[in-house]
Amino acid sequence: MHDFTNPTLRNKFTNYPALIGGIEQHLISKKRVLGQRSLWKGQYDCGFWTPHSMFHYPYLLTSAYYSGKIPNWRRNRLVGDSVSVMGDSGGFQAATLGADIDPVKILRWQEANCNIGFTLDLPPAIVKANYAGPVRSLNVYWVDDKEFDRCLDVTIRNNDIYAANRINKNLHIMNCTHGETDERFDKWINAVRHYPFEGWGGGVKPTSDPLVQAMGLCRFWRNGITDRIHLLGVGGKNVIPLICYATKYFTRLTADASSYGQGYLSKVYWHPTEIGRLISFGRNPEMFDEYDEESYNFGGASKVMKYEGLDKLPCECPICREIDHPDILAQRGSIGGALIALHNLYWLLSWIDSMLEMTYDELASYIENTSSKRCLQAVDFLETCMNQSYQKAINKYFDLLPSDMVGPRQFSLF
To answer: In the chain, N or C terminus with fewer CB closer than 10 Å?
Structure first.
């Protein structure tokens, strides 16, 4: 069983699992209906941060837009003092839902409930959600210069409010960044970098593309930022190895993702010994071909099988050891999905820790043997940037990067 509190590993890269509604509501609905907490097998709940968790992981991310509506959220959700909570501000909801959010109220909620909080930004993008069954994928459309400047102005006003009204100095505030091109990213960074905040948050789309994520990290580097960077919503089986490798040049990297939660929605179980192999306890395997590859196994499924015929689960994690028969995961109701999500999360966190324990040469070899060609290119992009220049890396991979992010080709003679 992994020790997820290992400070050596945590100093490199920390994954903050996004708190999915299914896990949270399963915990709370049982409490509301029964008048007490209903424990799995009389011992465990479906959290990963509570005293009754089947395993304990002391990091999580939640959104102030949703959790901020709950009085005494931390106590209500059984979040102890040893758990580090990262509080998103709700800027995404402001952009996609048109939500009217008071930055002072968000800040006060973050100060009362969080260890790390993001400034209330207004993302300069149009985001549209597509659904295939329970699975959601997002399409992002960039805005014109006028709208970009408006979003930046709103973010600056909110930053001013955060800087003037913060009370709890123990809350580490992350300065949100945006910009799909170098020029826009630099313009945003230069407009907000003077604020006395403690870190940076950002994320480029698509979040499952390791080459794009390498470019995003290197944009921070070229602006002199190499510490306390959070990658928003970034994950994937080919991106996480890249982030672990990037700790060679960046310190205190963090990221959040909710991909483990697909286990709750569609009862997709990640096989413990083979990346890309899935076991379905719900939908028919042939239906997975319809879905966006980022939705399953945090980066794409290569093999999907039905659970019928399994006498036991192929895993000895703390969750699977408490499941007497695989049929339990397929039963009606929410407990099967909650258990699968917890198994997926434990698998993900254990996999991350195994990479963080490698030397960088060992990790590079591991990526070469197990990850996609694009992940290998992402590692080379990073090394080219650090050892030669950012522009050299851009020129080398220009044809493989999204055209709306790199603009016209630029050449360097040196």
So the answer is: C
